[in-house]
Amino acid sequence: MTSGWLEDRVWMLLNDALAAYRDSPRAFRWLQHHAQRFEEPLRIAVAGPPQVGKSTLINAIVGEGIAPVEVDGGAEALVWYQDGAQPRATLHSPHESVHDLTVTRLDRWLHVDSPTGAPENVNEIVVDWPTRTLRHTILIDTPGAVAPGTAAPDGPSIMDRAAREADAMLYLVRRAPGTELNPLRMAPDTPVGRAAPVQTILVLSRADEVGGGRIDGLLSAKQLARRHRRDVRMRGLCQNVVAVAGLIAEAGRTMREPQYAALAELAALDREGLDGLLLSTDRFLGASDTVQTLAVRQDLLNRLGLVGVRLATTLIRQGGTDLGALAGQLVRRSGLTELRESISQLFVERRGLLKARSALLALEFVLRAEPRPAATGLSAEVERTVAGAHEFRELRLMAALRGGRIRLPSELDTEAQRLIGMEGTDVSTRLAADEQATGAQLWALGSQALDRWVEHAENPLLSHAQQGAARTVVRSCEGILAELAG
């Protein structure tokens, strides 16, 4: 089942609104902007408090060192990273003037020189970077949304900018729940905002700090993320909670042979000597009898952190005999693999749904800001569209099943997750059918699934919440059959 119905419906509403607001230049430009966004790659904002690792995570996702980009006057600027034919960076001022920046690419790292004669205030910085990772997504690096432990006065405005410009969001925190989540609690109190809080993945971005810096702390961080998924305080704030050691993830994606060689030299030391060396940062940097210079040890510490160095040397001892093997292990253990799978599953595969949601929010904004008789019926149509969008219900049920807020009997849980699209949104994947299955075979599988779940929805032995989940699966089965019929 796809979000084709929803996309078509929202596209029609956008065009109706464009006709109704043709004589309002500001509203017309805003609606036109969102109509154009339908054809663009998915926009994902990376937001959170200052110094929480946003740029580090962007580098880990892309696999190259492109963040951060900092220029004079750009303290509150959003930085956009998108695919391009060659490395390029431009400044955009609030008055829409554009200034090119001098960009160099050295060993797969981006270097940007601050411009001369640029505007004092920078609204956006757009970075073009040729990479396959950014062909289907645009990443938006945001300023700190809120100071640690406090609610900064400018927090909501920054989050508002990010929410309006992005279709989805990775929100990074050190710990949850807590005051760092306050910006997420400021979601728009509108029909779309209330009915469709489906665009956020919460990232515990300092997973390597859990457990006192021990290697098994990464496992503890993943267990903590699973507990947070079940926390009722997370309901309505995010679709998933993932623990990621950003620095280790970035190192795994950007490590080169010199760093691997230095780590291999450390791993070759006797176990007792290496453990003593890695007890603290001071010991690691202060030792004078190691095989590396201070500069090499400082570089390893900057790239991996002390926990990352411990983990990397342990992995090399256990069989990480080349750069590729070590890098793959670092990426997997850092939690980045799980995050990328979640991004693909919840965001990329549902691009049309998230684009439609962004457009519905834009419509609501215009209808509230400039009410007029010609647009009277549009507000009701927006509410009806949100109420009828089954795709939103699927995502909310997905989050509830993943987090354990709704528990189905084990024999039903796996099938329910598959039918609502947790493993993939195409019909064959939802029905667990062979790729070569004919239309008739898919129809038979879909009809059988529908019959089973209609019975589950009426089963008195299931709780009210479980019956509600089953009704959502029934609607998904009906959608599969409708798509096959179409």
Could you walk me through the main structural features you see in this protein, from its secondary elements to its overall organization?
The structure is a single chain. Strands 5-4-3-6-2-7-1-8-9-10 form a 10-stranded mixed beta sheet, sandwiched between helices. Helix 6 crosses helix 16 (390-403), helix 7 crosses helix 11 and helix 14 (351-369) runs antiparallel to helix 15. Residues 146-156 have low confidence and may be disordered. It is globular. The protein has 3 domains: 4-63 and 131-245 and 338-356, Rossmann fold (3-Layer(aba) Sandwich), CATH 3.40.50; 254-325, no CATH class; 406-486, no CATH class. It is of the alpha/beta class. The longest helix is centred in the middle third of the chain and has 24 residues, at 294-317. The protein contains 20 helices and 10 strands. Strand 9 (200-204), helix 6 (217-230) and strand 10 form a beta-alpha-beta unit.
